[in-house]
Design goal:
alpha/beta; TIM Barrel; eight-stranded parallel barrel; two-stranded antiparallel ribbon; disordered C terminus
Length: 508
């Protein structure tokens, strides 16, 4: 891009400084789209000479104390003396660079004098061929010696920037092949100077412009960084177009990766579309995503966001994105020692406990009433007569018959009402009769008497007649085994219970 007319170093810096102080150094409130944790070297082109150096700390203050690590300026391309570095402002930039080890000094170097003189293509082609033949080598040797002498041998040199465009005399399109030869001669000449540690940045315009910039690439051996100048202008209407277009941002990233080189953005900023905060946010996010070696925004109108006041929305987007978050001050909690107060030891008085005699209260004796125990009559249970069996059988194991125990109902007797005797006058207590529970003895089942067997064969016995249901005659069958049952037949033991006709109950 064309640069503004250069101002002399004698410009009133005091007036500029006062204006910068009035710009406002208040910290910006961070937003969600802030790139977090970015340590990418950033800067801005603020002026080519001493004012540019003086403005850096004010830009840092405007960004909430952000570290400005990149100082960026240009050598004048009107005469070879300027291209050789015979300008006083290089000393100011050298002093700034040497103040901190992590700083970068970026210097744009023209490849031809009358670099912005609108030289026609045929004449540009002649100058390119002269340079490829070595005619201008001595100018670049003197520049390298000057930078080493000033103590900035690691300067990043943006040589012949925007070579794919139509603006500068060092453009590539009139003779691309000889242009690449010319670039190689300049790099080889400067690297031959003892003590140099230069990095050469190949930085075309975004887009095809006059020629696809890959056709001007001079080779990996003479390029250290692949940069790109990308302003908010065509080709492309949106930022996505700027990414995907031929020779756009994505192709730069891919090309650099394929050649094993870092990328950079020496120039970027607003232009044809005015105040466009969306472009600023998207460009900063792209930078954060792809981690270039450095980036510097062009900060003068119409491109800038700090010194140029015609882009307030973009200025806010830039400031919000790059102002570092700072935690609030940590106020230490004062430690107040707790005083230790000794506890006085107070002796406890010993009070003797008086002995109080316990009075003896006589316990009155209450007479215990005598309640006679009623006698319950014992019922007489007749002994049952068992018939004597006549068959001759061997002595079998006789099971004990189960005889139910008769249940005798208890007569209901009204409960006596106790009367509490007075301790002074004992009253007679009339005992209430208590009906005793009748004791009913369990009937005794006598063991059957088995006679001794006789040699006389047994006679068939009459079968016992089963007693009627609910009678007092009980019979229990006897089992002697299979072979004895065949000899003696089926036998049973019968019991007859008789309580007499006057008995008032029957247990079944």
């Amino acid at each position: 891009m064309p640069r503004p007319r250069r101002r002399l170093a004698s410009t009133c810096i005091g007036t500029v400084t006062a204006g910068l102080l009035a710009t406002g150094a208040a910290l910006a409130t961070p937003e969600k789209d802030r790139p977090e944790g970015s340590d990418i070297a950033m800067g801005a082109y603020l002026d080519y000479g001493p004012p540019g150096v003086a403005r850096i700390p004010y830009l840092s203050s405007w960004l909430g104390g952000r570290n400005i690590r990149v100082g960026h300026t240009y050598l004048p391309g009107d005469k070879w003396a300027g291209i050789e570095g015979r300008v006083s402002f290089l000393e100011d930039w050298a002093d700034w660079r040497q103040a901190e080890d992590d700083r970068l000094f970026v210097l744009n170097v023209p490849m031809q004098e009358r670099n912005e003189g609108r030289v026609p293509d045929y004449r540009v082609a002649q100058l390119i061929r002269a340079g490829a033949g070595g005619r201008y080598d001595r100018h670049f040797q003197r520049l390298a010696e000057r930078l080493v002498e000033l103590g900035v041998p690691d300067t990043v040199i943006v040589l012949g920037w925007e070579m794919n465009g139509v603006t500068y005399t060092h453009r590539c399109a009139p003779d691309p092949e000889n242009w690449k030869v010319y670039w190689k001669r300049i790099v080889t000449t400067m690297r031959a100077v003892p003590g140099q540690e230069f990095k050469f940045d190949f930085a075309p315009n975004r887009g095809a412009d006059a020629i696809g910039w890959t056709k001007c690439y001079p080779g990996d051996d003479v390029v250290d960084v692949i940069g790109m100048d990308s302003y908010d202008q065509g080709p492309g209407r949106t930022f996505d177009d700027q990414i995907t277009q031929p020779y756009g941002l994505q192709q730069q990233v891919d090309f650099a990766k394929a050649h094993g080189k870092p990328i950079s953005y020496p120039e970027w900023g607003l232009f044809r579309r005015g105040d466009n905060p969306e472009y600023v946010r998207r460009m900063l996010k792209w930078i954060e995503q792809h981690k270039p070696l450095y980036h510097t925004i062009t900060d003068y109108c119409p491109h800038g966001v700090w010194q140029c006041k015609q882009n307030p929305e973009s200025s806010k987007a830039f400031r919000d994105a790059l102002t570092p978050e700072r935690p609030g001050p940590v106020v230490p909690t004062p430690v107040v020692p707790t005083p230790v107060v000794p506890t006085p030891v107070v002796p406890t008085p010993v009070v003797p406990t008086p002995v109080v005699p316990t009075p003896q209260v006589p316990t009155p004796q209450a007479p215990t009433p005598q309640v006679p125990t009623p006698q319950a009559p014992t019922p007489t249970v007749p002994k049952p007569e068992l018939p004597t069996p006549t068959p001759v059988v061997p002595t079998p194991a006789v099971p004990t018959p189960l005889v139910p125990t008769p249940q005798v109902p208890k007569p209901e007797v009204p409960a006596p009402t106790p009367v509490a005797p007075s301790p002074q006058t004992p009253l007679p207590v009339t005992p209430s009769p208590v009906a005793p529970s009748p004791l009913v003895p369990s009937p005794v089942t006598p063991s059957p008497v088995t006679p001794k067997p006789e040699p006389t064969p047994p006679k068939p016995l009459p079968q016992p007649t089963p007693p009627p249901v609910n009678s007092r005659h009980w019979c229990v069958p006897l089992n002697f085994g299979e072979w004895l049952s065949k000899l003696v037949g089926k036998q049973s033991v019968c019991i007859k219970l008789d309580f007499g006709k006057e008995s008032s109950f029957w247990p079944f």
